[in-house]
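Message: I would value a second opinion on how I read folds in token form. Give me a protein, with the fold worked out from its sequence. Write it directly below this note and I will take it from there.
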Amino acid sequence: MAHLVVEARADGATVVVRLTWREALAARRRTVAVPLARVRATGVEPDWWRAVRGTPATGRCRPGRWCVGERVHPFGRDFVAVRAGVPVVVVDLRPPAPFSRLAVSVPDAGETVRTLRRPADLDAGGGEPGSVEPA
């Protein structure tokens, strides 16, 4: 199962999606990295299929089971690594990020979202982070 982490780098914090080797084969890439400053909103979607939008551009899907890769829709491109029965962390991104949304199934979705919001709180002066429900 894919991992979603925030890494501290010299140029700032980065959201990184690391895929398992099987997911990497299907998606034709091993990782996806986006600057944390590009994160617009985060949330948890309990139903994995609701986080998937558009049509496949690269990657593979097995209907009713899993979907990994890039998807194209009228608002841009999404990167998804989702599995049936596992909650999805949805990360909506601001331009000029390479994707409009990252959707990744992780077993501890609530904790992952808190981790994504924590660095934003520190940058904003400690205020309560805003959250937009995924579309």
Notes: Residues 121-135 have pLDDT under 50 and may be disordered. The CA atoms of residues 7 and 32 lie 12 Å apart. The first strand starts at residue 3 and ends at 9. The first helix runs from residue 21 to 27.
